[in-house]
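Structure ticket #2291
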Amino acid sequence: MAETKQRHIPVMLTEVLQYLNPQKGDVYVDATFGNGSYSKAILDAADCKVIALDRDPNVRVRANEIKNMYGERFEFRAGKFGDFSVLVPEKINGAVFDIGVSSMQLDDAERGFSFSKEAKLDMRMSSEGLSAADIVNTYSEKDLADIIYTFGEERKSRQIAARIVAHRQKKPIETTTELAQIVYEIMHKHAGETDPATRTFQALRIAVNNELEELQKGLEQATNKLHANGRLVVVDFHSLEDRIVKNFMKENSAKKVRISKYAPELAQSDSIFSEVSKAIVPTAAECAQNPRARSAKLRYAIRRS
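Resolution: structure written out below.
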């Protein structure tokens, strides 16, 4: 079966493979399947098995293609990675997460993720539950301001929320471009600068998909499924996500204690991870080839033996 054209360029793929370190006979989870780039690369790197997770029903076609290519070595399980322990009851040797919205979702105007494309204001990764339009048109001004400030780190959140409420009293806000234009009334666009609607759209997307809570649950449950020396690799794209990943790994890493100034440092035995990395960033060459990579950070952790 011919492969579909790949629009998604995997970020930090070389580094993901380096730190996941796939081995023959082992089992790995691609917790954010998307277009399957990580899954395919892991399967090509070693004679192993990959279990892929995704809540987006639109990835089924690509998952079926990879299943046809790799047979029993690949298995797709539909669902949120926040339900990792339910979706993956077995023990595994490693898991990789690529956090946030995929290029495929941004490129598909009908999904309503992008302010640069006219579409219904949706943003649901699973195509189920509350949409961004539901939040924008029904939440109180205070709740809207809190979402935009907390999840978008937008300093003008209160002004934007007030303007949203004023607009929706005249008519419901239904499209991505309508919402973007409301933001532009508060913050004007300037050529060469980040679009001022970016933070508001990010905030709504995170709220719609409950992304930060899902991330915390996914990290905890994936870690619980790791064999000794199993590896957790996470690629994230903004400070809110990275703070969660960094703190999770730090809180569960081996803390060094010294009995006396003459004794060597010893790692506390109750820690989960024997090794955690600092943030690893993409190369300049990758950023030049794929602008989406510029904000990426990779962190990995290895479970104690």
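Closing remark: The chain has a mean pLDDT of 88.
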